[in-house]
Amino acid sequence: MGSDSQSRTPSGAVISLSSVVVVFLLLAAGSYGALIKAPTEATMGLIQRIFYFHVSSAWTGFIAFFLVFIGSIAYLRTRSLKWDWLSVASAEVGVAFFTVVLVTGPIWAKPVWGIWWTWDARLTSSFLLWVLFVSYLLLRTLVDEPERRAVVAAVFGIFATMDIPLVYFSIWWFRTQHPQPVMGKGGSLDPTMWWVLILCWCATLGVMTLLIRVRYRLEGLRAEVDALRLEASRNAR
Amino acid sequence: MRFAWKHRATRAEYVDETGIEEFRSFYLGREQMKDMKFLVAAYVAIWAIFCVYLFSVARRMASLQDDIRRLKEGGK
After folding, report:
1. A45, A214, A215 member nearest B32 (Cβ)
2. Is B53 within the bounds of a domain?
3. Which positions in chain B touch A42 (Cβ < 8 Å)?
4. How many domains, chain B?
């Protein structure tokens, strides 16, 4: 990821116009698929259409949190602050996606289950994952020195990602109110629904990539401000 | 037989009790509008979450760019 001096200089444009256009087209196609093209589910009716962005946001959130894991391991191995920037950018974007999951889930649950929330294994472990990464972001604000902050955050980030398998496998390991998987082994998703879900996932992955790049750039600017302040204080002496 | 739609009854219970056709006619008559409100609420929430997040990142970025400009001007 480059030397420490390089890591203090953010470079290049954040995102290109063409990538923004592609992501907006994917979002438009995904929304069209989810709201119009996909067939209406037999028992849940219209409300099931929440599924496409609820599930794809959850998968994308997992990937963002997994990037925190990769960034944390890489930082501890290389001590390059760019990996720490990747971790914090991914954690914040992952929290945004999991906020979507935790908000759309209850909106879907109320008309179908008759309740907004229940403390079953899938819902509780998802909420715990969100709390862990919010704590990760809060923890970072408590340490001023960048290298020390990166080490503490990397260790906590690795610990927090340990909850991902628990969230994912909870519906197999425990009896839950949350439905069983509809894709892969044991799933029976209509082919059109399947394609719409994949399209929505591509759209959310695109959004994640753009947001992480913008957030990464923000960390670069922050490092530049720190470097300029240090230089100014040296000049003042 | 008409199913008594109680507050805590789930759709699966309704279908078990009345059959899918009865459920569909009931659903189209009464539940669809309610579902539409929940669906709209969910999609509005998704857009709102990302708009708030993007706004927060843009604000932080603008503030840092101001700091950089000020520090560079101060250093000259």
Report:
1. A45
2. yes
3. 20
4. 1
What is the span of the domain harbouring residue B63? 11-75
A57 and B32 within 8 Å at the Cβ level: the answer is no
Q: What is the pLDDT of residues B21-74, one digit of tens each?
A: 776 666 665 667 778 889 999 999 999 999 999 999 999 999 999 999 998 888
Does residue B63 sit within a domain? yes
Q: What mean pLDDT comes out for the span A73-89?
A: 96
Q: Which of A204, A21, A19, A190 is nearest to A98 (CA)?
A: A204
The mean of the pLDDT values for chain A is: 88
Q: Is residue B31 part of a domain?
A: yes
CA distance A43 to chain B (A): 7
B4 touches chain A (CB under 8 A): no
- The residue in chain B having the minimum alpha-carbon distance to the alpha carbon of residue A104 is B42
Contact A164, A62 (CB under 8 A): yes
Question: With a cut of 0.90, is the ipTM above it?
Answer: no
Determine, yes or no, domain membership for B29: yes
pLDDT of A231 reads: 86
Q: Compute the half-sphere exposure of residue B53: CA atoms within 13 Å on the CB side of its CA.
A: 24
The pLDDT assigned to A187 comes to 62
Measured between CA atoms, the residue of chain A closest to residue B52 is: A96
Rounded to an integer, the average pLDDT of A96-105 is 96
A60-83: b (≥16 Cβ within 10 Å) or e: bbbbbbebbbebbbbbbeebbbbb
Q: Tell me the torsion sign for CA atoms A17, A20, A24, A29.
A: positive
A→B interface, C-beta within 8 Å: 31, 35, 42-47, 49-50, 53-54, 57, 92, 96, 99-100, 103-104, 107-108, 110-115, 207, 211, 214-215, 217-218, 221-222, 224-225, 228-229, 231-232, 235
Tell me, what's the pLDDT at A87? 97
